[in-house]
Each structure stands twice: as structure tokens, then as C-alpha cells.
Design a protein that fits this description.
The structure is a homodimer of 339-residue chains. The first copy, chain A, has 339 residues and is an alpha/beta fold. The first copy, chain A, is 45% helix and 17% strand. The first copy, chain A, has helices spanning 15-28, 38-48, 81-90, 103-112, 150-166, 189-199, 226-251, 255-263, 265-274, 301-316, 319-338; strands spanning 2-6, 31-36, 55-59, 96-99, 124-125, 128-131, 135-140, 174-179, 204-210, 221-223, 282-286, 292-295. In chain A, the strands form two sheets. In chain A, strands 3-2-1-4-12-11-5 form a seven-stranded mixed sheet, sandwiched between helices. In chain A, strands 6-7-10-8-9 form a five-stranded mixed sheet. In chain A, β2, α2 and β3 form a beta-alpha-beta unit. In chain A, α5 (150-166) crosses α6 (189-199) and α5 packs antiparallel against α11 (319-338). The longest helix of chain A has 26 residues, at 226-251. The mean pLDDT of chain A is 91. The interface between A and B is large, with 51 and 51 residues.
Chain lengths: 339, 339
């Protein structure tokens, strides 16, 4: 399997990309294509002692930054490290693409250079969030589409379900619709319409779910509109930061508490790792006809390895074929119903 | 000052209500009216050793439960402990009312038996949330009004601002509008329209605020529609529960970690108290022409004391007069502008 990665995307590129690619070749048995200025990549590989085995460098010029218009990845900047990565994917020279570069450019590039799955109205970038017991759940929409229709959310539910099964190894992922209560009458028109659709969708729909249950692991796939989803994600982040500050203040108060910190050091480290994006690596862009993964901007080699692992599992388990089939069936059923 | 409390509202009524009332008489120097079955109240006062000083019992029959239709508080059940409390407030026999009973009934009773402030479109029940540094901020709307207009949110901003200044002692409270980014173009139509209104409202409007900044103390008053507000509040709650579980698992792992727990016991207790609703006591129902406070359903005597303290400060600092004036000015300005 060949996976292409944007060699200059992310805060720690190209060094951590190169080290992550070497790890992926070694541990996952894949081949990696790395895009970017070949001279720089070569000299950094030598300096870092990254072996050439399994790695192919593909020339590209410059980098898309977060300051660039995201559309430039498909127009004047399609020869950048990100643009070339998408082109290689599009031409079939790689089976999946990864970038830790500008999120907006990845979404634009992923949905413009690559085609969408037939019938899919909108693609969504899908964050994976930590919850109780060291598990993960995904959120669609996490912010790309502020206004969603029930039909969009139905497709998101199918895509999220396929992704969690294929990549995260969760059988029959529990799909929940975010709402302010679990009673039928709770929520807005959007929730009522979406619930009616999800009840007749071939997924494991568990109904409405309240936000307080989600971090405790109530669902594997959380469905909501992009505005609410983004607020939800950022609230989780803010509360995490509040707790981190509080723990720091608690353990650094005096000598006694510092001794306390030493006693739980191992457990603190484990919890911190569990809450860390690095153990996962990437967020898939779901809805595109070919697999695109966004790695966190501050990814290190281990985080990139995580993204490679996700992309590999995604391809191996035919996630896109499964989504395509489920969504085409949906359309057939609708046609049958209406006809 | 006389404050009336629903003697049978809440999980721990009437005992904790009675003890809380005695604390309020003693520590706040107020008089308390307690509604309910007088024989029961009297015998519980004797059993608990609650002194009669400053406490007046007012007869009422039965209790509104969460199973009751909330409208019953104004109709067939207006002689219940909650109904009588609202009537006493309405008749001017008390200057503020408190209940730990059914939230829905309090909202209905508070906005039906009591009148709304002139010009106020909707009342809102306003939760106070803990943030960094042991401080509190309030959220409007927290869930009462799923669909809000920009005009409603403008009134909420004024009411929240007056409340935080009068009751929480915060000068020039920072009012933020919840959004998915701070750039002008971010958000939905509702955020754009509301921002335009808030910019010409005489409050300390700090602009858009992202959910991740709120638990870290970025604002004193958080403005958003009721659906988003409720999701925000419940996400905070869920993340708090996740962290609590994680801490428990961390400290109870083995003997060494249990020793660690002993070393930070004091700090853990302080943090836990800081995150606890009991140190605050009540949520105001803002928008009514007379002060109504909802105490937490599981309030104990200390929590009730907190609610009495809030109500007293609210009355003493003329919060309702200030809201009424600010909202009437708003109308005048609008008329002037349009004329």
C-alpha cells in the first residue's frame, strides 16, 4: 500500500514527517510518498539518519500556509507540497493522502481535487475525541457546515459509522443525535426531522443523547450540526484546559502536594496520554471518494505514525466502498418510497 | 427585608429549607416566610431545634412535583407551597421568592403569577458556572428558549450584566457572544445580527468568544441561544464528570496513589468546593418584574443560604430597577432611531 504525505505540512515539518514516515514503513509495512523540495528533504533525511527504504520523495514547490487562501491549493498553488499530494492521490499513485497543513486548504483540496462519494451532499472533517475508559468517539459535523439539513446529518451518520467500524475497530458503532434531552418532544425541528430519518437508516441509532453523557462514552458517533458540533468540541477543550490548570495548581501548591504528585506520576501520565491527540494522529475527511486525513498541526513523529495507521486501516477495510454502497442504497430506498 | 421560600421544594425539603432559613435569619439579618403544611413545618422545626426567630410559616397545601404539569402552579395547584410563595411575592408581602422545586413550574409560575419587566420579550433561567480562579460566569439562554432572536439576546445581555454587577459584585461585567471563531465572518446569521445589536448596547461587550475560552474565565456573561447554551452547559457537566472519574481512578489505583491522594486532600477539597453549585445556591429567573430564584433540587442548608444571599443582594442593589431602566432606554433609542 502506498500512502502520500505532505512533507511540509505542520509546525514540525519536514523533520517529524520524515521520522513519522520511517516509523510507518517499519511498523506498518507500507510505502510512503513524501512531497516537497527534494533537496531539503534529502539533506534532512541524512541529518536525522532516516533510512531511504520504503520512502519515495516527490518534487513540489513551496507550502500552503494558513495565511493562504485555501482555494489556492487547487489553483495557483497546486504544485505545493499539499497540492502535489492531492494530485498523486487523484491520479491513483497513492491510496490515501495525509497532511498536517492548513485545515481549510485540506478541506478545499480534498473535496475539489478529489471527487465526493456519489450522492454525498457535503464532506466533513471528523475529529476523534477521548472519552471514559480510554475510548474515542467521533463528531460530525465538527464545524465545517454551520447549517445542516436532516439529509446531510443522515449521510454523516452513515459515514461516521463506517469510519468507526473500519478504522477504530468498533462493531456496530452506537450513533447518537445530540439534543438537549432524550424525550421525543425535546429539541428543534432539525433534531426531530433527523431522528425520523435516522430511525430508518441501517445504522445502530441509539436516539437522542445529551451532551453530558458524551464524554462518559454514551456514543461512538455523535451527530449534530456544525455550529453546535464546534461549540461542543471547543467546550470539551476548554474544560480540559480548566482541569489541567487546576491539577497543576493542586500538585504544585507546596512540598507535600509535590510528593503527592510523585505518587500518582505514572497514572497522571497515562491519563494525559489518553486525552492526547497524538495517540490517534489524524481526523479523516469523510465524504471524499478517496481517503484524506488531516494530522494535527503540531504532530510529532508518533502522531504522524498514528495518522498513517488510521489511513492504512481505512484503506484495508474498504471504508469508502462501504460508505458508497450504504449511501447508494439510501438513494434507492428513497426513490422506491417516492415512486 | 422579607424573602419567601417554598418550604416543600427540593429533594431535602422541608428539613434543609428550615435549617437554611435559620442560617439566613442569623447570618443575613433578613426575615423569612416559609410556605407549606404548617403542622409538619412546626414539628420539624422542633425536632431539628430550628429557632422561630425571624421565621413566619404561611399555610399551603401540597407540593408541585416534576411530574405535575408546570401550568398547574398557576391553576389548580396555586395553593401549593410553590404557588403560595409566588402569590406572596406578587402581593408584595415578600421582596423575593426562592424555590428548589420543579424548574418548569418555577419558570411558568415566575413568568405568569409575576409580571415580566416592561418590554422584556422572554424571561431566562440563568445558571452560574465555575471557571478558572474560583470565579463564576452566567449563561443566557441556558435552555429555556431554543430559538432566540437577536433582540432577545440583546435583552439577555443587559439582564445578565445587571445581575452579575448587582449580585456577584462584578464591575462592568464582560459580555461575550458565543461563536465558533472570533473573526467577523464566523458564525450564523443569528451571531452576526446579535453582534451588531450588542455593539450599540450600553454594556461591556467584548465581542465573539469561543467555547474553549469560557471555562478559562474569558467572560462574565455568556450570550447564546437556548439550544447551544444547553449543549454548552451539559458538555461542561459531562467533562467535569469525566475528570472526576479519572481522578478517582488515578488516586485509588494502589497504596502509593492513595498516599498521593492524602498529600493533596486539602487542595482536592478546595477545588471540589469551587466546582460545587452549593457555594452559589441559586439561579435567578431574569426578566420577571420581581426577583425569583431557583435553588438546586438537591440543595442542603448551606446551598439554601447561598440562594438567600443572592436574593438579598439582588434586592438591595436594585437589580430589577436597573434592568427596567436599561431596557426602557433601549426602546426609546430604537424609537428615536426609527423615527
Amino acid at each position: 500500500m502506498k500512502i502520500v504525505i505532505d512533507g511540509f505540512g505542520g509546525d514540525n515539518a519536514p523533520d517529524e514527517v520524515l521520522k513519522g514516515a520511517a516509523l510507518a514503513v517499519d511498523k506498518l509495512g507500507i510505502e510512503v510518498l513524501i512531497t516537497g523540495e527534494v533537496d531539503t528533504l534529502k539533506s534532512r533525511m541524512q541529518a536525522l539518519g532516516v533510512p531511504e527504504k520504503g520512502i519515495t520523495l516527490v518534487p513540489a514547490e513551496g507550502v500552503i500556509t494558513t495565511e493562504d487562501n485555501p482555494l489556492s491549493v487547487v489553483k495557483q498553488k497546486n504544485n505545493t507540497s499539499m497540492g502535489v499530494a492531492f494530485n498523486l492521490l487523484s491520479e491513483g499513485k497513492a491510496q490515501a493522502a495525509i497532511s498536517a497543513g492548513s485545515t481549510a486548504a485540506i478541506v478545499v483540496g480534498g473535496t475539489t481535487i478529489e471527487k465526493r462519494i456519489k450522492g454525498v451532499k457535503k464532506a466533513a472533517l471528523v475529529p476523534l475525541m477521548p472519552c471514559s475508559g480510554g475510548k474515542r468517539y467521533c463528531v460530525l459535523d465538527g464545524g465545517a457546515n454551520l447549517y445542516c439539513t436532516a439529509e446531510m446529518l443522515q449521510q454523516f451518520a452513515i459515514m461516521g459509522s463506517c469510519f468507526m467500524e473500519a478504522t477504530m475497530g468498533i462493531k456496530n458503532p452506537r450513533v447518537g443525535l445530540l439534543n438537549i434531552g432524550t424525550e421525543d418532544e425535546k429539541g428543534r425541528e432539525l433534531e426531530h426531522e433527523t431522528k425520523a430519518l435516522l430511525e430508518k437508516t441501517p445504522i445502530n441509532f441509539v436516539g437522542y443523547v445529551e451532551a453530558r453523557e458524551v464524554p462518559l462514552g454514551a456514543v461512538d458517533v455523535l451527530i449534530t450540526d456544525g455550529f453546535t458540533g464546534n461549540v461542543f468540541l471547543k467546550t470539551c477543550e476548554g474544560m480540559g484546559a480548566l482541569m489541567k490548570d487546576a491539577l497543576k495548581g493542586m500538585f504544585f501548591a507546596n512540598l507535600k502536594t509535590k510528593i503527592g504528585a510523585l505518587c500518582v506520576k505514572k497514572q497522571l501520565g497515562e491519563f494525559s496520554a489518553q486525552m492526547d491527540y497524538k495517540t490517534i494522529g489524524g481526523s479523516p475527511l469523510l465524504g471524499t471518494a478517496k481517503p484524506v486525513f488531516k494530522a494535527h498541526g503540531s504532530s510529532d513523529a508518533v502522531a504522524f505514525l498514528g495518522a498513517f495507521r488510521q489511513a492504512k486501516l481505512f484503506v484495508e477495510n474498504n471504508a469508502i466502498e462501504k460508505m458508497t454502497e450504504a449511501i447508494s442504497k439510501l438513494k434507492t430506498e428513497e426513490v422506491t418510497e417516492n415512486g
